Amino acid sequence: MARRRSAVRIGVTGLGQREELAPGVFINTFYRGCTPGFIHTEEGIVLVDAPLIPTQAIDWRTQIEEEYPGEPFLLLINTDHHRGHALGNQYFMPVKVLAHERAYKEIVRNSFKREPEIQAQLNNIIIIPPHLTFTQRATLLYGNRRVELIFVGGHTPATSLVWLPEEGICFVGDIVWVDQHPYMAQGNTLEWLRALEFLRELDAEFLVPGHGPVVGPEATHRVGEYIEFMRGRVRDFYRAGKNKNETKSGLVGEMLEWFPVPPERKAKIESQIKSGLNRVFREIQREEEEAAGRVVALADDDEEDFE
Fold first, then answer.
1. Which of 53, 101, 115, 287 gives the lowest tally of CB atoms within 10 Å of its CB?
2. What is the count of structural domains for the chain?
3. How many Å apart are CA 154 and CA 159, to the nearest integer?
4. Closest CA to 188 of 286, 108, 120
5. Are residues 192 and 301 located together in one domain of the fold?
6. Residue 300 pLDDT more than 50?
7. Longest dimension (CA), the chain
8. Percent of the chain with pLDDT over 70
9. Is residue 119 included in any domain, yes or no?
10. Is the CB of residue 3 less than 8 Å from the CB of residue 35?
């Protein structure tokens, strides 16, 4: 499958041209907040995620409409409910928004307190929650185009994949992060690790992360190693009797070394890592307590057997 770029460079923000991964399947990796995509079908356009910043969302819509003038927007699929994927939904109306059922309950607006020029653009934001939801899997058929939606969780309770089996392209949302620390504050790490394993078995040629460049399935390994390392180190601290705050303080430096961090973003990334450690600590605490309970139960059963 050849990758090529559209010859057209347009857009009111001048943020770079769209990239065509397969005939009629486009992405743009230049926007802040997410890497949106769209899929041309015989019946219209299926969108995947919406740019966060209004000028970028408008730019993306302009690019789509100039590529396929007059084509209707059929669906806008949000891979999760976080602002980077869903806050720009309003700029693609009229369209039906589709996401996992948990996304309907959790889409929220966040502010840019330190960036007033962006905050000003968000003053008139209208939150558009999903019109349609699914639970585990759904298949969309538009002419010869097959689009599969697969719930995986892990990053959030609503994180889902958009899989194009004929093209070998999977929009993976924030399950895969490329050379940057994953955001884990709403994560379920065991689900996340299972999702990464699922991606390795999917036989995709291209994975489109929620942020950053297109990668292959091999990119799943580094994210998985990061998560497994964090889980192991948190378990070490928990078993050593450290509390949650001691664990966060003790491990943030170790985690910081995993990926490059620009100096101006160090404080922000440290805060993000701490939120992930906080989440993982609660997971490990629950796992350890449940394991202790199972040991006791097994011991009781053994005593009954001996009797």
1. 115
2. 2
3. 7
4. 286
5. no
6. no
7. 80
8. 83
9. no
10. no
